[in-house]
Design brief:
elongated, alpha+beta, 3 helices
């Protein structure tokens, strides 16, 4: 059985989010990439608390494609140290999960 994941990252522009989404899907690293935003972010960086606007990309992929997807996102991301986190999909319609599997082959 293939394990299915949601993988998240954020970018500073909608254009960067769209580019990551499209390139990952084109390379079959993810079945889809959903861009949402703008979102307001509060974060700590170099000891300071800051706020900014970001765009989030949610990818649907398989566990065996996660590492390649992460490498792709880091290599093409505008941030030096981007957030790339994964969550297991615990349940889903069999047809939908099979689509994710097919789309990442």
């Amino acid at each position: 059985m293939t394990d299915f994941l949601l993988v998240l990252t954020t970018t500073d522009t909608q254009e960067a989010a769209r580019a990551l989404s499209r390139s990952a899907v084109e390379k079959s690293l993810a079945a889809s990439g959903q861009v949402t935003g703008p979102i307001e972010t509060t974060y700590r960086h170099l000891g300071d608390v800051s706020q900014g606007t970001e765009w989030q990309v949610t990818f649907r992929t398989t566990d065996d494609r996660r590492e390649a997807l992460e490498e792709h996102l880091v290599a093409h991301h505008p941030y030096d140290s981007p957030e790339v986190i994964a969550f297991a999909i615990d349940a889903g319609r069999a047809e939908y999960l099979e689509w994710i599997n097919r789309a990442t082959r």
